[in-house]
Amino acid sequence: MPHFPTVLVTGSAGLVGSEAVAFYSRQGSRVVGVDNNLRRDFFGPDGDTGWNLARLRAECPAYRHESLDVRARDALARLVESARPDLVIHCAAQPSHDLARDRPVEDFEINAVGTLNVLEACRRFAPDAPLCFLSTNKVYGDAPNEAPLVEMPTRWDYARPEDVEGITEACRIDRSTHSLFGASKTAADVLAQEYGRAYGLPVGVFRGGCLTGPCHAGAEQHGFLNYLVRACVEERPYRVYGYRGKQVRDNLHAADVIAALNLFAQAPRPGEVYNLGGGRGNSISLMEARALVESLTGRTMRAEYVDQPRVGDHICYISDTRKLRTHYPAWTVTRSIDDMLAEMVTAAQTRLATSR
């Protein structure tokens, strides 16, 4: 019998959710997924996850899909009551800064109230099931920009030796500009922590940086590396927002995300918070990523520079994952930035060829 006989995944057709579905299906778990493809509504055809759901149904025959909105509190509670999951992976979210500004009520209801609905359903009907919540580094707002930086030829980087590992969980989450998306995710993040403390719910909060992989439905408003690859392969114009294209992100493959969540689920620490990213070794600037993708594809991107950065955007963000690695020393980053980009280029080229 698998370690977790029944696993519930919200956002199950998205990047991390689909990776969770595939991973636990391979373990022999009965996987129930919740996803109503709101990404298509958010981002149009680029965000459509229908192809990924079709892939899961083909590769995971026992997978049970529920086209359910996490805002539907009663329906979600009924599902948790009937499924009685042994593990819950909560990935469903509205993920875009820009979209949140245009649709603030929807953003808050999905990210904050939807998370409350998941937590409450689990408290009532699956209180012993570990619950892994995918938060975001945007809970820190633009506070990470206060770290002294140095401008280098192709990137910004931290100026002080003590910052070399990146941003820790001690970074404040108030008195900073978050964007409305960052604010809604902060509300969800704090709620999840409190459910761990108040009720002993075995919930872990994972503040993801740039999580990526070939199963990401990248769009201009969300999905940095995946959309960059897509723009190059499909010869789309690509807009660079601010900081001369030298802004830095650390990137982590979705498979390594699930590896971290699975270790937590086997030995949960209720209400604990972890930064989750690829760290310095998987950090890359937009300028550097563009050059690497162009070398992999043999194409020159059509780029347009927009001098105004996005609200609350980070100039240089590298996840300090020492806390996660200390609590769960078996966890490691297995996919390099070169590996991930090569995989995404191949996947994007294949999808383009089959769509013609």
- Please give the CATH class: Alpha Beta
What is the number of helices? 12
Strand order of the largest sheet: 3-2-1-4-5-8-12
CATH fold topology: Rossmann fold
What's the SSE pattern?
EHEHHEHEHHEEEHEEHEEHEEHEEHH
Distance between the termini: 44 Å
**Poorly predicted ranges:** none
Assign an overall shape.
Answer: globular
**Mean pLDDT, nearest integer?**
95
Number of domain modules: 1
Topology of helices and strands:
Elements: E1 6-10, H1 15-26, E2 30-34, H2 38-43, H3 50-59, E3 64-66, H4 73-83, E4 87-90, H5 97-102, H6 104-125, E5 131-136, E6 149-151, E7 156-158, H7 179-199, E8 203-208, E9 210-212, H8 224-233, E10 237-241, E11 248-253, H9 254-266, E12 272-276, E13 283-285, H10 286-297, E14 302-306, E15 316-317, H11 322-327, H12 337-355
Parallel strand pairs: 1-2, 1-4, 2-3, 4-5, 5-8, 8-12, 9-11, 10-14, 11-15
Antiparallel strand pairs: 6-7, 11-13
Helix pairs in contact: 1-9, 4-6, 6-7, 8-10, 8-12, 10-12
Care to describe what's here?
The chain is an alpha/beta fold. The protein has twelve helices and 15 strands. Helix 1 links the parallel strand 1 (6-10) and strand 2 (30-34). The model has no long low-confidence stretch (mean pLDDT 95).
Brief synopsis:
The protein is an alpha/beta fold. The chain has 12 helices and 15 strands.
Keywords, please?
single chain, about 20% strand, 12 helices, alpha/beta, about 350 residues, seven-stranded parallel β-sheet, Rossmann fold, four-stranded mixed β-sheet
